[in-house]
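Open question from group meeting: does this chain pack into something compact, or does most of it stay loose? Before anyone orders reagents, we agreed to write out a predicted structure and look at it together. Recording both the input and the output here so the notebook holds the full record.
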Amino acid sequence: MDIFLTADAARTLEAVRRLPPVKGSRGFLLGHRRGDRFYIESILPSPSSAWPSLKAFYELDTDLGGKIIGFFIVGSSPAVRMPLLKPFGTGKVLIEIPAGGGGKRAARGALIDYRDRFEFRKIPVIIEDPVR
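Structure tokens returned:
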């Protein structure tokens, strides 16, 4: 099982990472799942510093044609991650990207899973290498 970031999605995540930090920068991963691979085609940064309510989340996902397959956060704050450990997050993925600074840094991926309790299960992030 892994997360595959298209080149466009990876560039957008890198751009978000380079923006001046906003406490709790976060957003949504849009794409589809095929077998054991989550394909991230684009991202939707959230203008809010909080995750939406469950009702608002489902309305947003409906507006986007059911394309929300995960979440991203900038930095690694447990306070930002923990609200995703709920039934609506199960089966979706999380990408954590390091905050700010120069140079590229590796993104960390996780599957939001439930096995006797909600948990983040580490999975690799693969970034598309576009043909130049």
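Observations to bring back to the group:
The mean pLDDT is 88.
The first helix runs from residue 7 to 18.
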